[in-house]
Amino acid sequence: MWPLAAALLLGSVSGGSAQLTFNATKFVEKTICNETVLLPCIVNNLEKKEIKTMYVKWKFKGKDIFTFDGNQSKHYASDDFKSASLGSHLPEGNASLVMNKNDAVPGNYTCEVTEANREGETIVELKYHMVSWFYPKENILIVIFPILAILLSWGQFGIVTLKYKSNCTSEKTIGLIIAGLFLTVIVIVGAILFVPGEYSAKNASGLGLIVIPTVILVLLQYCVFMTAFGMNLFAIGVLILQLLGYILAVIGLSLCITKCSPTQGPLMISGLGIIALAELLGLVYMKFVASNQKTIPPSRKAVEEPLNAFKESKGMMNDE
């Protein structure tokens, strides 16, 4: 009889002091896009489920960073983890810790939960995971399309200076060179700042320097068309296409530049691709027209000056 009573008593004592069990979470990843970080701590076998009987303690590197005393309804957060807090589902066994991303330091965090005379703990590791702002293929296209468009624009300028010398004034040529050099330097600087990596102010400014100045290409192509053979339907169509591409690129830029994980990257890349396509069409058309144009009609000024000189000399001979 006595052995049976002792066994029942020991069983009740051991059952009352049984350890709490948790949903095991080995690690949690934090990225630059996180505004807050959640460290999970879920208890499976709560019995009373009353907040007054619960005590929660979170530790980092052996130091208490957050405590909650349900009996006194008080909580404490250390100076380095001021943003730490618990959710509202503690009586259900959810003792997860939420904190600002700036306070969430990578490392091992220990969650200790006590319910009456039962307790337990679990360890969660916080890791930092680096994520690229754009996908690798998108990074390549964002840089390649503007550089390709600039090279094609320089090709158009070369055709104008070599084939249409009579229509090129020195002031206009110098202006085109300065504008082309300015655009080239700005895009190269933007490409250097826009290095593949995480979202940052430097990357965002580099992307802006790549996209926004491409409007200069529209102006350069207009000047080249006017210098070479004037405006026609094809030239107008190419300029409209190029302007449309620029509008799409700017809209895509505005939707991407403030987002840590941009979803409108393809829209911006499509706009840059259309700009490069318009430059290619203009170069091919200009090369085709220049190759078929054997003689370049002299300008009106070039015709009038010799004619006036001839008339003046003839008048002087008549006077004599």
Description of the molecule:
The protein has 320 residues and is α+β, with helices and mostly antiparallel strands. The protein has two domains: 20-128, Sandwich (Immunoglobulin-like); 136-296, no CATH class. Helices cover 51% and strands 16% of the residues. It contains eight helices and nine strands. The strands form two sheets. Strands 1-9-8-3-4-5 form a six-stranded mixed β-sheet, with no helix packed on it. Helix 3 packs antiparallel against helix 4. Residues 1-16 and 294-303 have low confidence and may be disordered.
Describe the structure using short key phrases.
3-stranded antiparallel β-sheet; 320 residues; alpha+beta; single chain; 16% strand; 6-stranded mixed β-sheet; Immunoglobulin-like
Number of structural domains: 2
| Helical coverage, percent range | 40-55%
Q: What is the overall silhouette?
A: rod-shaped
Percent of sequence in beta strands? 15-25%
Task: Provide the spatial order of strands within the biggest beta sheet.
Answer: 1-9-8-3-4-5
How far apart the termini lie comes to 158 Å
The average pLDDT value, as a whole number, equals 83
Describe the biggest sheet? 6 strands, mixed
SS-based structural class? alpha+beta
> Uncertain segments of ≥5 residues (pLDDT<50)?
1-16, 294-303
Indicate the radius of gyration in whole angstroms: 37 Å
Q: Given the structure, what is the number of helices? A: 8
Number of strands: 9
The H/E string reads HEEEEEEEEEHHHHHHH
